[in-house]
Specification:
The complex is a heterotrimer. Chain A is an alpha+beta fold. Helix content of chain A is 27%, strand content 16%. Chain A has 2 domains: 13-42; 56-247, Alpha-Beta Plaits. Chain A has a 3-stranded mixed β-sheet with strand order 8-1-9. In chain A, a hairpin with a 5-residue loop joins strand 2 and strand 3. Chain B is mostly helical. The two termini of chain B are 38 Å apart. Chain B has helices spanning 2-20, 44-65, 74-81, 96-104, 129-135. Chain C has a domain at 186-328. Helix content of chain C is 68%, strand content 1%. Classes of the chains: A alpha+beta, B mainly alpha, C mainly alpha. Chains A and C meet through strand 2, helix 3, helix 4 and strand 6 of A and helix 5, helix 6 and strand 1 of C.
Chain lengths: 249, 136, 390
């Protein structure tokens, strides 16, 4: 036996309809600014998974890089708890390279670190997927899976990777690292994920030669500079689509 | 035939040797000092069984997807569970993680890479205790 | 002359002495691996420039030769060269033994050898190393299956199809080994399409050389077979020499590769020395002369095989170490210096622990062979026909 409801078969009362329309209009007005705000806040907030809406990168101006200055290297060592040694077995995530052009004798210097390629050879050759590219473009090593085969070290065109050759104990809590695993510059991923949108090296550079930013955002300073200045990728012939660009080279 | 038997005996002795070294008698239950005024992410009964799985899931979230901080972070665990005297979660056989892991003989190598002491780096050497302990 | 291996007819004492010797070398190798595991790779002379050292030279030799040594069985089953048939089982055993030895060295040289299970369960399909997990386990399985087909009478008719499968698998496996290096786009020493065929040729030559030496320790071959093997060894050595020449010649034509070729062939110190003296002269030209000269006999064949193995180690040392010693060309047109030794040629000498680890792999292969021929019928026997047919 069907139940009989008092309003069965009738339309909602006119006043209810108006209320619903007004509510819908109010909701639309309330949401609209949020829609545009979502466009602006592209990067994931701390505690949220990262997305490919952003692509983090660096722009390095070789003209501003001072000869003999090692501030970026020291800052990286401090930030990541690196031992700072320069023996052949010591780990270096960033190093200052002094260049001399053979044809002209011109000298310049610049820091070199992991170039965070979009087509990373290290990711291709890693047997366990420990070397991986995150959604936001940062190339990292998952040390839980790294077996220390060093194949990625051979594959990297930029000599960016180092293996930890001895037991270490003074790791920073945000930067776990250990013997037998391979590692390289993380673009200060622990800072980025916390919401601090700058790397230690960029922050420490006294001449602001290193600029960190979102390559996917055309309004960011790094994108505007790359669009207006002539920039180069190292070993551009390899077509790896790098996240690190150089100018003044 | 006898030669094959000798080879088999040799292989068996090689395999059995570690077990033969073990001492008889029960291993004492671990005694843990935990600060009961704060709460962990889950009750102790749940944590005892599930913490490995929870850590594994959290590891993927952090390493592959960049989710850091909060109560589930490993650094938060260490902040709470670090031993009050030595300041670390694994420095001594009585330390929080080490005590139970020694009891159930599950190798603990997290702290070969992860920092077992809370907060910023402290001075003073700490032996890479986990690995050498496993070797004994 | 006492044989390196102990045959069943030699008596018990001979076997136990050789077993003890093999176990001693294996123990030294495992001990080295343990020390490297405890202390980290700082205990070796490998570093962030020379990431693969002497253990890899041994391991790659063993793995490449393992693939090639099975060719003796393939020639019998697949290509119908019945002269090789009595020796096919031994070649199968050697394949398994050397593959095991080589893989043991590779796995023990990992930065985290305790994570081999991780390597087997996390697979990245674009990585040749990950393919190798399947290719090597498949090779073991196929070689074992092949042996079964040959050793059990009623299964003999399946020996040919399984032999063909093993043959194809070997080619894929050795191509993979060559591709490990061929896929390294940025290194001047590697990144060449001629590497996979070069590795195939090397596997055939080195496998044949190892087989000749083991066969000599197991009583040797008859006149007819010897003649064939002399000829075949010569052809295979020439093939490797040809492909090596092609590799260097094509490199010379690339202006950006010229400095590297100069380094390897001319002014790189130990590397040109080992290449010309160790590989070309001692490892290729002299063996070819030995096998093809007038009056060449059993002694010539064995000497040629031994020299081929020496040349193989020299070639691999130059290829693996020399290729890493030469710096990456990150800034073409510039001279580079840095704290990370950019632009500098990396120095390397083998350390004792590395050599012991490599020898431990050889010992593992030796022990498997030594015990194998005692326990099962790997050597030619009455069933294989009269000695004249061997």
């Amino acid at each position: 036996m069907a139940e009989v409801s008092p309003n069965q078969g009738e339309e909602p009362a006119p006043s209810r309809r108006r209320l619903l329309a007004a509510a819908a209009a109010f909701a639309g007005v309330a949401i609209a600014p949020g829609v545009t705000l979502v466009e602006v806040a592209r990067a994931a907030r701390p505690g949220e998974p990262v997305t490919s809406k952003v692509r983090w990168g660096l722009l390095i101006d070789a003209n501003l890089c001072q000869e003999g200055c090692q501030e970026c290297v020291l800052a990286c060592n401090r930030e990541n708890g690196l031992e700072g040694g320069t023996r052949p077995v010591d780990v270096q995530w960033i190093r200052k390279v002094e260049l001399k052009e053979r044809a002209t004798g011109r000298t310049l210097g610049l820091p070199v670190m992991c170039q965070h390629c979009a087509n990373p050879p290290c990711v291709d050759v890693c047997p366990t997927k420990a070397s991986f590219k995150r959604a936001d473009g940062i190339v990292l090593v998952d040390r839980h899976t790294c077996i220390g085969c060093r194949y990625c070290m051979l594959a990297c065109p930029y000599k960016a990777r180092s293996m930890v050759h001895e037991p270490i104990t003074q790791q920073k809590p945000e930067v776990p690292r250990g013997k037998g695993c391979v590692e390289s510059c993380t673009l200060c991923v622990h800072r980025i994920d916390r919401g601090e949108r700058n790397t230690a090296c960029a922050e420490a550079c006294p001449t602001k030669a290193i600029l960190f930013g979102d390559l996917n955002d055309p309004e960011s300073e790094i994108s505007r500079r790359i669009a207006s200045l002539p920039t180069k990728e190292l070993r551009a012939d390899l077509r790896l689509d790098l996240g690190v660009r150089y100018t003044g080279l | 035939m006898p030669r094959a038997l000798w080879l088999l005996a040799l292989a068996a002795a090689f395999v059995a040797a570690p077990a033969a070294r073990a001492e008889p008698g029960r291993v004492p239950l671990p005694v843990l000092e935990v600060d009961r005024t704060t709460t962990c992410v889950a009750p102790p009964e749940v944590m005892r069984r599930q913490h490995a799985r929870m850590l594994e899931r959290r590891k993927d979230l952090t390493v592959r997807h960049g989710v850091r901080g909060g109560k589930e972070a490993l650094t938060s665990c260490i902040e709470c569970h670090a031993d009050r005297q030595t300041g670390a979660a694994v420095a001594t056989p009585q330390a929080f993680c080490q005590a139970c892991h020694d009891y159930v003989a599950v190798r603990l190598n997290c702290f070969e890479c992860h920092q077992g002491r809370p907060g910023a780096l402290r001075s003073g050497a700490i032996e890479p205790g986990t690995l050498s302990r496993w070797l004994r | 002359m006492a044989s390196v291996l102990a045959l069943p007819a030699d008596g018990e004492r001979a076997f136990w002495i050789r077993l003890a010797a093999g176990l001693a070398v294996l123990a030294a190798g495992l001990g080295s691996a343990w020390m490297i595991f405890r202390a980290g790779h700082i205990a070796t002379n490998m570093n962030n420039e020379i990431v693969w050292g002497t253990p890899h030279v041994f391991a790659i030799f063993l793995i490449v030769a393992a693939s090639g040594v099975l060719n003796v069985a393939s020639m019998a089953s697949v290509f119908g060269q019945l002269h090789y048939k009595p020796w096919a089982r031994l070649s199968g055993l050697l394949c398994i033994a050397m593959l095991a030895g080589g893989l043991m060295v590779l796995m023990l040289d990992l930065g985290r050898p305790d994570r081999v299970v991780v390597a087997a369960t996390h697979i990245n399909l674009t990585s040749v190393f990950a393919w190798n997990v399947f290719l090597y386990t498949g090779m073991f399985a196929l070689a074992a299956l092949y042996l079964w087909m040959q050793m059990e009478k009623r299964m003999n008719r399946y020996a040919r199809p399984v032999g063909i499968a093993a043959f194809v698998w070997r080619f894929v496996l050795t191509t993979g080994t060559g591709c490990i290096f061929a896929f390294l786009v940025a290194r001047q020493a590697y990144a060449s399409a001629v590497l996979p065929p070069l590795f195939i040729a090397m596997s055939l030559a080195w496998g044949m050389a190892v087989f000749v030496l083991v066969q000599a320790a197991c009583g040797g071959a008859g006149e007819d077979l010897q003649r064939r093997m002399r000829n075949l060894l010569g052809i295979l050595i020439a093939l490797v020499l040809y492909l090596t020449a092609v590799y260097h010649l094509t490199n010379l034509y690339f202006a950006r590769q010229t400095e590297f070729v100069r380094f390897i062939l001319l002014d790189g110190g130990v590397y040109p020395l080992l290449f010309w003296g160790g590989y070309v002269l001692a490892g290729s030209l002299v063996p070819m002369w030995l096998v093809w000269r007038q009056g060449a006999g059993m002694g010539s064949l064995r000497a040629a095989a031994a020299l081929t193995v020496v040349g193989a180690f020299a070639a691999l040392y130059v290829f693996i170490l020399g290729g890493q010693a030469f710096p990456l060309d990150i800034f073409p047109g510039f001279d580079e210096t840095s704290s990370f030794r950019d632009g500098a040629i990396a120095g390397y000498v083998p350390s004792l622990l590395e050599v012991l680890l490599g020898l431990g792999g050889v010992a593992a292969a030796y022990l498997i062979t030594l015990v194998g021929i005692q326990v099962l019928d790997f050597l030619p026997g009455e069933a294989d026909g009269s000695p004249a047919a061997r």
